[in-house]
Amino acid sequence: LTVQVNKPGAAVNKNMYGLFFEDINFAADGGLYPELVKNKSFEIDARLIGWKALQGAANLDTYAVRNEQPISTSNSHYVRLTTRNGASGEAGIENEGFRGMGVKAGGECTLSFYARRGAGSINGVTASLVGEKGEDLGQVALTGFTNEWKQYTAVLKSSSTHNKAHLKLVLNGTGTVDLDVVSLFPKDTWNKRPNGLRTDLVQLLKDMKPGFLRFPGGCIVEGRTLSERYQWKETIGDVAARLPMINRWNMEFKHRSTPDYYQSFGLGFFEYFQLSEDIGAEPLPILNVGMACQFNSGELAPMGTASTKGGPNAPAAAPHDHAADDPSLDVFIQDALDLIEFANGPASSPWGARRAAMGHPAPFNLKMLGIGNEQWGPQYLERYEPFAKAVKAKYPQIEIVSSAGPSPDGDLFDKASKRLGELKAEYVDEHYYAKADWFRQNVGRYDNYARTGPKIFAGEYAAQSGAIGSQDNKNTWDCAISEAAFMTGLERNADVVGMASYAPLFAHVDAWQWTPDMIWFDNLNSYGSPSYYVQKMYALNKGTKVLPVTMPAGAKNGTDNLFASAVADEPTGEVVMKLVNYSTSPRPVSINLAGAKGLGKTGRAQTMASADLQTQNSLTEPKKLAPQESTFAVKGATLTYTLAPNSFTVLRVPAK
Ligand code: AHR
User: Fold this and answer.
1) What is the ipTM of this complex?
2) What Enzyme Commission number(s) appear in the record (predicted)?
3) Active site residue 68
4) CATH assignment of 19-34+190-234+244-294+367-540, given 3.40.50.720, 1.10.150.130, 3.40.190.10, 3.20.20.80?
């Protein structure tokens, strides 16, 4: 191979490798967002999802969601409990959490709830953490209930570590009591924030040094129907007043039943921006373009202000009544303009003031906005055009990511580029979920892509070892090494490929709908799949300029399953090479670092290798396959290096 060290080409986008976040597989509630109580405000369809009465309600007369004289109109449901006359034993309720509650020995949680006492003598509640076998892990009593709504808080500490604990609330006394907004929130959150995020999961993200964070999806942006679309304005402000909504991924299947999947929006748009800032990633919100998910209703918002109830001049829908509006496209466009003001406007602007009130007076410095997800065809273009024009007219500096279809074997140029190019979209968002060999065979996908149109955002991709969403679709090394091979093609084409992210990002081992996924977790532990480490190796070694690589005579990238790309990393003065040997034999390579004026004596290698392509990581072996570091001697301008069987190697050599 020859790497032309003295001929640096295109700049690598400094945000090239990033993250795709969607609330799928319990990624938010039950995952990154560590609230332990499910349906804390009893607002999920005014049902008791997540709750059950102690002792099978043997000691309760009433156990029901009510709405008379609620805490507020935005939080209009609560649970009413009335003890049964003459009953003995525990009366109360318990919450199951999200497939249980993860608690650590000595770990403290803030318990809080609102209570209002009715007739009788109930003057408090004893709250306990209970283990899977009924073990008592810790208790605290909260007393002093009155006949007005009042908030009660305490610290609840666990005596031991449990993955599937639950919270029990036992009434002290007999009579009636109303409870609402019951929260159990770990104190140990990222940056120790009261409404903060789960530390191990944020750490895995931060360790990747991601260039961007795309949120909140994915299909949940679209919703199954327009009334179930993601509406960012309903996810900011007081956490207790954010009303839950059914998740697009709420579904019942044999192996992956999650009929209890709702979005609490405790992790809302403010928290997404804050997370982006915390991990050093550019925020990339994706907004609904006025189209519901094409795989479901495919419902369309009427163009302009044609709707009966929506539109900028129409009276506001009842707060949080997701189903009440029937918005026209103008409503969606206004949401986008308001979002930019929320992120970037001065604290004196209406939406900037909302951000400031949440504790972030400084702007979030939003630079990019996605319009639509996986939508295409005339209906998309019809809506995209006025949407993009309005955004650009007010905020010309905002870069727009447009949508494109999932396109493993589609015609890239027809689908994505032509009209969106005319409409001056900065990016088209390509998605590919395909077999591992597709990734190796398509390493040249962008070699002949038009250099003048929108750039590519490879916004969702993952190699599949089985059917999507099936149990046997595993995060194998075969998938990850094939992604690494494909990514040499992204890197070589950095002049047109500006961003890339694996998808989906997270999955709870007991509550997933989609496989494979980059990071897996249970209620306490987490691990990165081999694909996580491939993404991380690219992100940490992205360099600054592409260097031309010539393969051996007669070969191109991928011939004989050898894949290569190279970049210069100007700040460190190193040449960085990515090499994939997809073969069962060790492969000696000689690499001519052509045109280098001087080379350092020692190079650094990071290698992921496993002869067994089926190797996976797991909760019990989280780093079975992870990058190994070593050094090697550099003797002259031609480097000889033996690539391990089935390996992905990054070589860094100091070079002038
Ligand atoms: O990543 C899972 C889903 O795949 C996303 O929600 C959607 O955009 C794509 O179809």
Assistant:
1) 0.99
2) 3.2.1.55
3) no
4) 3.20.20.80
**Pocket, ligand 1, Cβ cutoff 6 A:** 22, 24, 217-219, 373-374, 406, 431, 460, 503-504, 514
Cα 151 from chain centroid?
Answer: 32
Residue 97: C-alpha distances to residues 38, 39, 135, 280 (Å) = 5, 9, 16, 31
φ, ψ of residue 78 to 5 degrees: the values are -155, 175
Mutational pocket test of ligand 1: of 256, 373, 407, 429, the residue with most ligand atoms within 8 Å of the beta carbon: 373
Question: Does 353 have pLDDT greater than 80?
Answer: yes
Query: Is the confidence at residue 309, as pLDDT, over 60?
Result: no
Banded model confidence at residue 532, pLDDT cuts 50, 70, 90: very high
Residue 446, both tokens? 């962008």
Three-state helix/strand/coil letters over 481-510 = HHHHHHHHHHHHCCCCEEEEEECCCEEECC
Q: Beta partners for 136? A: 130
Where do the domains of the chain lie? 2-8+545-654, 19-34+190-234+244-294+367-540, 51-186
What is the reported pLDDT for 420? 84
| Beta bridge partner(s), residue 82 | 62, 176
Q: Tokens 């900011």, residue? A: 236
Q: What share of the chain is helix, strand, coil (3-state, %, to 5)?
A: 20, 35, 45
